[in-house]
Amino acid sequence: MPALLALFAFSRHVVAADDIVSVVLPGTDFQAAREALIESIEEEGLVVSAVIPFNDMLQRTAAASGPGAPLTSPFLRAEIVQFCSSRIAWQLLTEDRAQIALCPLSVSLQQRRDAPGEVRLAWRSVGRSSPGRVAADALVERLVRRAEALAR
Fold first, then answer.
1. Conformational region of residue 104, where left means phi above 0, alpha means psi within -120 to 50, and beta covers everything else
2. What pTM did the predictor assign?
3. Residue 116 burial (CB count, 10 A)
4. DSSP 8-state code for residue 110
5. Antiparallel, parallel or unpaired: β 119-124 and 105-112
6. Nearest of 136, 78, 145 to residue 102 by alpha carbon
7. 43: Cα separation from own chain's centroid
8. What is the SS3 assignment for 10-60?
9. Most CB atoms within 10 A, among 3, 97, 133, 136?
10. pLDDT band for position 14 (50/70/90)?
């Protein structure tokens, strides 16, 4: 809990659901935020396993997503950056092998059409029901804080 409270001190946070946390990075653009997030992950000694161009998929599939669906993505840009810590992965698996479903960890970068001047990072909290989950949450929070500082 102290790590989460420290994260709130850095900038404006919005909790969209019980397990989704997001933060707006003030005074930065999408590319700078992307570079800062990747650098933050790499500074931790981790490897980015994928950068998923999520907005491209939304744009391609908008018209086919059903009656009444929007004809365009709600984002100008949106990517999902995936990474994993082998130490935390092993800790999670030692606690419960089903927790493999929590890997890889990910953080999304978003620039929304309704707020084009904002860049937002969002991630799923894996919860705090075990030491491995606490460590995973703390890692993501640390990476986001570092990315926020680097993006300024």
1. beta
2. 0.87
3. 12
4. E
5. antiparallel
6. 136
7. 17
8. HCCEEEEECCEEEEEECCCCHHHHHHHHHHHHHHCCCEEEEEECHHHHHHH
9. 136
10. low
